[in-house]
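Holo prediction. Input below; ligand is zinc ion.
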Amino acid sequence: MKKSFCLLLVLAVLLPCFVACNPTEGPASHEHVFVHWRTTTPATCEADGEETATCSCGKTKTRPVAGGHDYTLTELDISENPTVERAGTFYCANCKTTLVRSITPQDIGMPIVTLTGSLEGISKENKVKVSFDYQAEDQSFTCEATLKWQGATSIDYPKKNYNVQFFEEDGSKKKVELVDGWGKESKYCMKANWTDFSQARNVVSAKLYGDVARSARRTDEFSSLINGGAIDGYPIVVYLNGQFLGLYTMNTPKDKWLFGMEDDPTLRQAIFMAEQWHDSVSLRVPVSYDFVSTNWELEHCSTEEDPTIGTNWSVDSFNRMMNFVQWQGGDYFKENLSSYINVDRAIDVLIFTWVMCGIDNTSKNILWITYDGTVWAPCVYDMDSTWGMWWDASHLNTAGEVKSWSNSSVNVLFQKLRMYYADEILARYAELREGPLSDKSIEKKFTDFFESIPDPIYLAEEQRWADRPGLWMNHEQQILSFAKEHLDILDDKFVKGTW
Ligand SMILES: [Zn+2]
Ligand SMILES: [Zn+2]
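Structure of the complex:
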């Protein structure tokens, strides 16, 4: 009895020690802590490696280290019939070997669109049917789609813009939400951005304007729109029948959807767009009922589908606004302008046009919007000839360019705003420069965009469209230095009141 008690005692004292100190067997009395992992077998391009760590109790643990090549994309195959579909050349810096395989959205951080079918007969009016394959990191689908050319001046450029409409198998419109927050839509626009090799100016400017529109201390119909009514978009790579077609941006279309409008004869909503320079786009000559003879286009009218109402009311309303803006002045102008114009939005558009140096945007590239058939608001669009870029990319503007705010083709509304709303403009300019239009915000928006497009994609674009204008310069550098210099001059002008 005494003997066995002693044995038990010895066991009771020794067992925990034995368990705790046994490095390989039995339940541990402490949580092993493995630190200082060291490579025991280095990983190579061909095989996994191994690393090891040891606990203070002496127990060791090993874990595999993934080997394999560290491939980065260096080049896209832009030939008509690549041997591999969407072929890209990948290079491993470790073993200096190359691999050719199909690129994926993960490789480039961008969605890939593959169009299959004949584009014969396509024009601005004539649609063609194709198979549309969309692959992104977050969603993929294949569907039927119709394409037609989009644009005014850009129609004549070799690389076209396309309006896309998605269809279900049963022929109904297929709605997809390409970007969170855009909402489901069946129509999008693939922009070639021919005159802007960087692809950045239009989309980044629209995002900047969106920040401006959201920063307003007020709520109106524009507050809840994607970018205050400006388009939104992101870069994509497009293939047509196996061949690299180019770097594009996938944009929201500039139509009623973008402005949250409907076909509804009980409403009086309209979107006007100037097609070309004309005295009527600077609000000096009335718009004609047929639009085209004064170089306008009717983008949307809520009563368009109802022939008993038609669209003439929208022209009358627009011309009534124009008549007021053109001929009234003094206190009466200031007291009554808000019956015709959304003044806050107009001031924002004017300031933003100056800031991005949008010479075409002073009159021609403006969308005019009415939500109630009476009050009109300008909205920015087509912002590729901005931040120093001349409209055909043949040369650059000088920073601080003042032609855009003093010449006679500038619309009368902007001239009158300068005349009668100088204090409001100065105050808002200062506010925006502290916030969404600060040097830092502008730089970040552009830098983010450029970082989202890998160099081999720009290289492929340059090879595929070797006659593109503007290949002679570094766009990122140009935009960033132009923005800085241009805004320094504007700040100075506004401070000194010499504008
Ligand atoms: Zn241990
Ligand atoms: Zn390798």
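The two ends are 109 Å apart (CA to CA). That is the main takeaway for now.
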